[in-house]
Amino acid sequence: MKRRDFVHYSALAIGSLTFAGCRTWKSTANSYVKHPFRDRLKPVGRMLETEGYYVWGGSPIYGEDGRVHLFYSRWPEEYGMGGWIHQSEIAHAVADHPEAPFRHQATILSPRGEGYWDGSTCHNPHIKKVDGRYALFYMGNSNRKTDTKRIGLALSDSLEGPWVRPEEPLLGAGAPGAWDDHCTTNPSFVRHPNGQYWLYYKSWNTFEYENYTDPKIRGNRKYGLAIADRLEGPYVKYEGNPVLNYSDRGNNTQAEDGFVWQEDGLFHMLLRDMGFFNHQYGLHLTSPDGLHWSAPEIAYYDTDHYFVQPPKPKHLSKYGRFERPQILFKDERPDYLFLASQGGQFMTSSGFVFQLDECYF
Q: By the 8 A CB rule, do 163 and 156 touch?
């Protein structure tokens, strides 16, 4: 979909408006202070619409060659959206710049089969350059179900590979009865200013998952933190976990797909809303220390806010929303936002890109 096809809904203030820099609109009747993330989003469009495949969860990084390298999940269309849990592989694509077409290069991680912790799926890639090497965090499972989902780490000296992946997961689930005894998934990594290696992860409790009362969502997803002195671990879970827990709000409120980064002296986190505002928006949180987080604000809206697409087909239950936020950084500043969304040319799923523009209205 070309940029001219998008519909952008601008914020309108009452009265005469004067421009005061790229962050604030002022009015004689009131004032509107721009949200530091949401109001920077400039839609670019879908990417990696791939015939015969569902494409999900692309994690981008600029390479030394100046191109954008994208690591993403995909699985054959014949398995439907649910194929992510038992058929997903992680692939590599490149583009000359973030708004150029991405070209598939190769599958770099595929399920290894029986006997391996990532034997039945490889999913949710999260790419970082750490200590001169490329670190690809991801989720695997061994029984085609959620209760063996574990976070792993593949390493390479080059974005072109080869990738060395571990014989054991990087982070295991909690002890029986713990809030995180079901799985570890949705990794997000930051190098703390104190030199430590911080890994955020999503999990939930097995008893709550198996004895659910919400007919639409089983269990209540929360976020924890694990800390290491080396990239490869061992990672020790923070004693104050979970660091994000919305269960006390009622109505099975929760969030997932956390992406954490540091900017202007604060930790920031993007999440998919699962009941705080609704189930279609993204959330933005900030923290002075990465442990204690602000109340969520809206990071981005549903797809209808940014573009027009055909009516929802019956086979796409997540149609109309964005998931799996990942940021492309340039000179250590957010440059583009990459998301996943159902639909597209082949009515499966694809990536979607926003530019993070300081002066976009």
A: yes
User: Which pLDDT value is given to residue 34?
Assistant: 80
Q: Which two tokens stand for residue 284?
A: 């933005």
> How confident is the model over 158-212, as pLDDT tens digits?
999 999 999 999 999 999 999 999 999 999 999 999 999 999 999 999 999 999 9
Residue 356 CB coordination number (10 Å): 18
Please tell me whether the peptide bond between 98 and the residue prior to it is cis, using omega within 30 degrees of 0: no
- Contact between 109 and 165 under an 8 Å Cβ cutoff? The reply is yes
**Domains in the chain, CATH or no CATH each:** 3-356 (2.115.10.20)
- The first and second tokens of residue 25, run together, are 């609109």
Taking residue 206's Cβ as centre, other Cβ atoms within 10 Å add up to: 20
CA distances from 34 to 13, 108, 267, 355 (A): 12, 40, 19, 16
The β-bridge relationship of strands 197-203 and 222-228 is antiparallel
Q: Where are the alpha helices (DSSP H) in 77-222?
A: 84-87, 206-210
Question: Has this prediction a pTM greater than 0.85?
Answer: yes
Residues 6+ apart with CB under 8 A from 198: 189, 190, 191, 192, 225, 226, 227, 260, 290
Q: What pLDDT is attached to residue 358?
A: 73
